[in-house]
Amino acid sequence: MTAQNLAFYIALSTVGGILIPIMAALSGGLGRTLDNPWAAAAIVSAGAFALVLAFTLLTGSMNVSWDALKQAKPLQLLAGVGFAFYLLSITWVGPRFGIGNAVMFVLAGQIISSAAIDHFGLFGAPHKPIDLLRGAGLVIMATGIAIAQIAANSAKPHA
After folding, report:
1. CA angle at residue 42 from 56 to 123, to 5 degrees?
2. What is the mean pLDDT of residues 141-153?
3. Cα angle value 39/36/80 (rounded, 5°)
4. CA end-to-end span of the chain
5. Helices within the chain (DSSP H only)
6. What pLDDT score was predicted for residue 105?
7. CA distance 117 to 120
């Protein structure tokens, strides 16, 4: 992997991470505005679909054969269910529990599941076992999430 590729992957992943709580706040707000979190999630999903479809068409990347699609594993075809569950849950939970609380628990879940996926090489991911150093890093990250949320939940709200 080149340094340029590494920098691009880090930047792209970081921007994706930055957008998760923004999306949570906006979709939760839309759910409150509409008084219907499920309709809000459908609207957000439609926007996501439109953007991905436009990008795919504009870049000429729509050249997937039916034969190739038939080779996809059923779980791969169901990946969107995870996005839908996240979107529905965060749109409903965020305004009730707090965006920070909701996203921090999402982050904790991501840390746990990504570590398990890497450790066991699940779903075709590269096998990266959890050694002592990586395990310590995961514990530090989870502890940081807990400390940040304890501090946020004990702080007095601003007017």
Report:
1. 60
2. 85
3. 40
4. 49
5. 3-34, 37-58, 66-70, 74-77, 79-97, 99-120, 132-154
6. 87
7. 6
For the chain, give every domain's residue range.
3-154
**pLDDT at residue 141 greater than cutoff 80:** yes
pLDDT at 63: 85
**pLDDT at residue 93 greater than cutoff 70:** yes
How many residues comprise the chain?
A: 159
Long-range contacts of 96-101 (CB under 8 A, 24+ apart): 98/152, 98/153, 99/21, 99/24, 99/25, 99/28, 100/21, 100/148, 100/149, 100/152, 101/149, 101/152, 101/153
Confidence (pLDDT) at 34: 97
pLDDT at 159 (0 to 100): 60
Residue 72 identity = A
Q: Which residue has the higher pLDDT, 108 or 140?
A: 140
Q: Are 90 and 28 in contact (CB under 8 A)?
A: yes
Task: In whole angstroms, give the CA distance from residue 1 to residue 54.
Answer: 29
